[in-house]
Amino acid sequence: MFEVFRVEVNLIAILLASITYILFGAMWHSRFAFGRLWEKLAQRQMKPQKSAIRQVIWALMASLFLALGLNSILQYSFMLSGLPLWPNALVTGFLTASTISATTMFNTVLWEGKSIKLFLFNYIHQLISYILMCIVISLFI
After folding, report:
1. Which of 27, 93, 126, 128 lies in the 20 to 30 Å Cα band around 33?
2. For the chain (length 141 residues), average pLDDT per consecutive 10?
3. DSSP letter at 49?
4. How far apart are CA 6 and CA 21, in angstroms?
5. 26, 20 in Cβ contact below 8 A?
6. CA-closest candidate to residue 119, choices 101, 134, 131, 133
7. Nearest CA to 21 among 64, 57, 81?
8. pLDDT at position 47, please?
9. pLDDT for the residue numbered 29
10. What pLDDT does 45 receive?
């Protein structure tokens, strides 16, 4: 554990939150959950890939960066709000997904012509992912 800008960084929490994000994403987009719906909304087909190692590495790096950011936001909001950890994790996950992620993702509807249904599908995935990551991180604060 170390500190950056008055925020404790627990590497185990960051790694577990990242793994949670990747595993939830894999389950969410699997054919047993919502994979077929995603294919329909995205007008794409998921094809088995020979080697997805590169994508997994990039996803892990992105999720580690996301976990670091959520860790900072979560701890600052905990210090400032006075909320207990669990409600703070839920509120922080909801607010970051809704104000940062959703507004950025909405550009795909405005400028790339993606459907609003695909946006909502992806937003709900991000919302749940952010909340799960905040809960995991809050277990180590």
Report:
1. 93
2. 83 97 94 92 80 85 96 92 91 95 94 95 97 96 84
3. -
4. 25
5. no
6. 101
7. 64
8. 75
9. 92
10. 84
Angle at which helices 53-81 and 85-96 pack, to 10 degrees? 120
- Estimate to the nearest angstrom the gap between the alpha carbon of 125 and the chain centroid: 8
What are the C-alpha distances in Å from 69 to residues 14, 78, 119?
10, 14, 23
The residues with which 8 forms a beta bridge, in sequence order, are 3
Cα 42–chain centre separation:
19
What tokens appear for 33 in the block? 């959950």
pLDDT value for 132: 98
Residue showing tokens 């580690």? 64
Structure token pair of residue 71: 């860790």
HSE-CB for 15 with a 13 A CA cutoff: 4
pTM, two decimals, is 0.91
The two three-digit tokens of residue 57, written as one number: 């590495």
Do the Cβ atoms of 21 and 129 come closer than 8 Å? yes
Alpha carbon of 26 to those of 4, 23, 56, 76, 102: distances in Å?
A: 31, 5, 11, 30, 20
Neighbour-count burial of 140, counting CB atoms closer than 10 A to its CB (0-12 exposed, 13-18 middle, 19+ buried):
middle
The whole-angstrom separation of Cα 109 and Cα 91 is 26
Distance CA 118, CA 73 (A): 27
